[in-house]
Design a protein that fits this description.
- The structure holds two protein chains of two kinds.
- By secondary structure, chain A is of the alpha+beta class.
- Chain A has three helices and seven strands; from the N terminus they run βααββββββα.
- Chain A has a single domain, classed as Alpha-D-Glucose-1,6-Bisphosphate, Chain A, domain 4 (2-Layer Sandwich).
- Chain A has a seven-stranded antiparallel β-sheet.
- Chain A starts with a strand and ends in a 15-residue tail after the last helix.
- Chain B has one domain: 2-Layer Sandwich (Alpha-D-Glucose-1,6-Bisphosphate, Chain A, domain 4).
- The relative contact order of chain B is 0.21.
- The chains are: A alpha+beta, B alpha+beta.
- The interface between A and B is medium-sized, with 26 and 28 residues.
Amino acid sequence: MPKPEFVYTTYIETTPEKLWHALTDGDFTERYWFGARLRSEWKVGSSFEMVRSDGTVSDAGKVVECDPPRRLAYTFVNQSDKYRNEFPALATFVLEPHGKLVKLTLTHEGFVEGSKFLEGISKGWPAILSSLKSLLETGQPLEIPYAALKLDS
Amino acid sequence: MSKPEFVYTTYIETSAEKLWQALTEGDFTERYWFGHRVITSDWRAGSTYRFAKQGTPTIEGEVLISDPPRRLAYTWDPCSTEAKRERTSRVTFDLEPRGKVIKLTVTHDELDEGGKTFRDISGGWPMVIASLKSILETGHELTFDAPSVAQKEKTDA
């Protein structure tokens, strides 16, 4: 059996510093992350939260690695009852300069077998990272209807 | 054991028609697909197609499904000697409108376990699709530096 994980690579015309900022600044993430602000002190061991526009926390975990502008890793799990049997899984972002581009590789791992959370994030990440690439390259995020992700199906 | 397949999804601000054109016109593919022109007499099921870089064939195959602007599928047969020993794989593009954007899903399957093609396309598709998204959204393709292109050349060789 392949291990339960999600891996996604993309290339963005930007700098590692700008991409790092885009991944860690709440004002910035709010624009491309379906309105979610990331909140953390970005130190190893500090808490990590995704905050909805109404101020409630949708997902929570801890920062595991923080090496700007190269590697960022944190755990999180959605706080809804749907995922109450799941543990925070580890998302690692690796930023590598490639000439005028940055190669961004996300590995999300540590899910329980048959994880519903893995199903959810597998639909969410391509949309979030596509919008992030658009925002950095064009100045505008994508308008992807959240319902289009079909997270409940 | 799941068979080896590679699935990659992205969202692009464009129309399904433009994206279809970008996938099927040689002048377009040459710009974002690192110099690879796609050549075919038409895009009908049963027709053959070929990718060529500066006249040298790199990939060839047969059109399996052509349902513009929704679904395109073709067989994938690298022209290199090493990959020739592997079975012919299959690529399917699904284009789905989602509000103002198109969800593009590329599925590459019927691959050999641990084969060269699987290795190559796993690295290649994210580069090609990232460049395709950029050209459609910004008007210009991505410029990869020499080592990345060299790696991509290996992919296609």
